[in-house]
Design a protein that fits this description.
This protein is of the alpha/beta class. It is built from eleven helices and 13 strands. The chain has a seven-stranded parallel beta sheet, with helices on both faces. Strands 7-10 form a two-stranded parallel ribbon. β2, α2 and β3 form a beta-alpha-beta unit. The protein is globular and about 55 Å long.
């Protein structure tokens, strides 16, 4: 069986669907702090998954999973992932992400499970020295979130050398879009990400979308990011897992579209896809935002045979359908 930690979250739940579609048996482990029980209920309707509620900060919780189920490989998403919050509250990030993963790895070794696919991040690179960013780019994270994940990458390297634990580290760039059938989606509270924030401003709630700075050194002055579709990302996890099962060796891959879109471009595409005017204003820069980040994902393409298939328009329209569902849920609770 495959253990998916954080399977009730955004990227985790999409990956669970991809793995279920491919016929794998899954155990989801999640503390439901940022994930949702409704997502677990939806996943249970899609396929045969087991769910265990537990917290990686408590090693007994994770030991129980390996004692109860016959796990061959782990796909590890469970983490906090807000850059701004990590700067204000680094303790939370090192305790949950780094220490929590140390517990997971210790439990894996004690139960003789030696394969893991890990959600890392382009935030481990820090301020880019060149773009597109490849896997050899120096890693100098500028916030505790990126540092908490870089430490995990390092632990995995040492654990491979000492205990033969094989890991595939996937460094994601920005993630966008939702399941094409809107069964699961991006569901954060509070929401801080670009596309859901633009979409939330279209529902007549009085929320004006805020562009964080238009004085960056980019063609239109707004930040450039690489928005990879979440279903494409889920597919990359399956390919990475199958590569790990086949080759039994550790490696690292960037996952992105290799195409940068500015905040203004994404905003304009939202207006086009929705055929709506969206209220917008430019405000101060958000601290910690580099001007330009996009991936060189050539290694994932050539070794994992990964090919992202969905563009930003696809991501925006699936995200909008999901956002409409979320809005009707919220209205139903009023
Ligand atoms: N952004 C923005 N307004 C928002 C949310 C984000 O202008 O309400 C910008 C943000 O400054 C960054 C880009 O959109 O340049 C992507 O931000 P997001 O939080 O989605 O992802 P991150 O790059 O932090 O991983």
């Amino acid at each position: 069986m495959i253990l998916v930690t954080g399977g009730a979250g955004y990227i985790g739940s999409h990956t669970v669907i991809n793995l279920l579609d491919a016929g794998y048996d899954i155990v989801v482990f999640d503390n439901l702090e940022t994930g949702h029980i409704e997502t677990i209920e939806t996943l249970k309707q899609i396929g045969n998954i087991k769910f265990l509620k537990g917290d990686l900060r408590n090693i007994d919780d994770i030991n129980k999973v390996f004692e109860t189920y016959d796990i061959d490989v782990v796909v590890h998403f469970a983490a906090f992932s807000l850059v701004g919050e990590s700067v204000v509250n680094p303790l939370k990030y090192y305790r949950n992400n780094t220490f929590g993963t140390l517990n997971l790895l210790e439990s894996m070794i004690n139960h003789d499970v030696k394969k893991i696919v890990f959600s890392s991040t382009c935030a481990t690179y820090g301020e880019p020295e060149y773009t597109p960013i490849d896997e050899k780019h120096p890693q100098n994270p500028i916030n505790a979130y990126g540092a908490s994940k870089l430490m995990i990458e390092r632990m995995m390297k040492d654990f491979d050398a000492a205990y033969g634990l094989k890991s595939i580290k996937l460094r994601y760039f920005n993630v966008a879009g939702c399941d094409k059938l809107s069964r699961v989606g991006e569901w954060h509270d509070p929401e801080t990400h670009l596309i859901p924030n633009i979409l939330k401003s279209t529902f007549g709630t009085g929320q004006t979308f805020k562009i964080f700075g238009d004085d960056y050194d980019t063609p239109d002055g707004t930040c450039i990011r690489d928005y990879v579709n979440v279903e494409d990302l889920a597919q990359a996890h399956r390919l990475a897992l199958e590569y790990l099962n086949r080759e039994n060796k550790s490696d690292v891959f960037n996952l992105g579209t290799e195409k940068g879109d500015s905040v203004k471009t994404v905003f304009n595409v939202c207006e086009q896809v929705l055929n709506k005017k969206i209220p917008v204003e430019v405000v101060e820069r958000r601290p910690g935002d580099p001007a330009k980040l996009y991936a060189d994902a050539g290694k994932a393409k050539s070794i994992l045979k990964w090919q992202p298939e969905r563009n930003i328009e696809n991501s925006i329209s699936s995200a909008y359908k999901w956002e409409c569902r979320l809005q009707s849920k919220e209205n139903a609770h009023v």
